[in-house]
């Protein structure tokens, strides 16, 4: 077998295996919690993030400019989801809840949130995949600290 045919076969096998993994995940309903070390879940999360979140939170998780300064309508700009923002200061369950039900559903009374609910837009598994993608981009110390917060809140 030539080197070119071997590489072509290896690439084809990898594509088939990725498809089987995606199919199996679809059958089982996908992730039911964050899994930032799972490349398939992270890839799904990036796809869903790019389609639903990047418009406000940035293609590189950078958020909107001046995200700590209220807009004229009383809402805050979308915060970054990288390590410079405050996303990692929240437990996984709260991040899931904010994404699913919207910011107003979990905010203190009087706080005006611009974060819409995504319950009717993406599935629970896709929300977990998005959170997995976001967490996969954090430096190890930030991930560890956020994991500890999540463990204490659960």
Summarize the structure.
This protein has 154 residues and is an all-alpha fold. It has seven helices and no strands. Helix content is 55%, strand content 0%.
Molecular structure report:
The protein has 154 residues and is mainly α. It folds into 2 domains: 1-30; 32-153, Cytochrome Bc1 Complex, Chain D, domain 2 (Orthogonal Bundle), CATH 1.10.760. Helix content is 55%, strand content 0%. Helix 2 packs across helix 6 and helix 4 crosses helix 6. It is globular and about 65 Å long. It starts with a helix and ends with a helix. The model is unreliable at 5-28 (pLDDT under 50).
Number of domains: 2
The geometry reads as globular
Helix content: 40-55%
* Class by alpha and beta content: mainly alpha
Which superfamily, in CATH terms, is the homologous superfamily of the largest domain?
Cytochrome c-like domain
Low-confidence stretches: 5-28
| Tally of separate helices | 7
Order of helices and strands: HHHHHHH
Instruction: Give the amount of beta strand, in percent.
Output: under 5%
Q: At the first level of CATH, what is the class of the largest domain?
A: Mainly Alpha
The radius of gyration computed from the alpha-carbon positions, rounded to a whole number of angstroms, is 18 Å
Give the distance, in angstroms, between the N- and C-terminal Cα atoms.
Answer: 54 Å
Total strand segments:
0
Mean pLDDT: 86
Report the CATH architecture of the largest domain: Orthogonal Bundle
Assign the CATH topology of the largest domain.
Cytochrome Bc1 Complex, Chain D, domain 2
């Amino acid at each position: 077998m030539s080197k070119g045919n071997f590489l072509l076969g290896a690439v084809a096998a990898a594509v088939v295996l990725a498809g089987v993994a995606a199919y199996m995940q679809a059958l089982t309903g996908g992730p039911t919690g964050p899994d930032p070390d799972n490349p398939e879940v992270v890839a799904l999360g990036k796809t869903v993030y790019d389609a639903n979140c990047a418009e406000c939170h940035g293609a590189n998780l950078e958020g909107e400019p001046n995200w700590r300064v209220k807009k004229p309508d009383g809402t805050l700009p979308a915060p970054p989801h990288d390590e410079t923002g405050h996303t990692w200061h929240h437990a996984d369950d709260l991040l899931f809840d904010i994404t699913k039900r919207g910011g107003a559903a979990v905010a203190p009374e009087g706080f005006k949130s611009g974060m819409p609910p995504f319950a009717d837009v993406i599935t629970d598994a896709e929300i977990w995949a998005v959170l997995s993608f976001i967490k996969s981009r954090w430096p190890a110390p930030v991930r560890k600290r956020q994991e500890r917060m999540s463990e204490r809140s659960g």
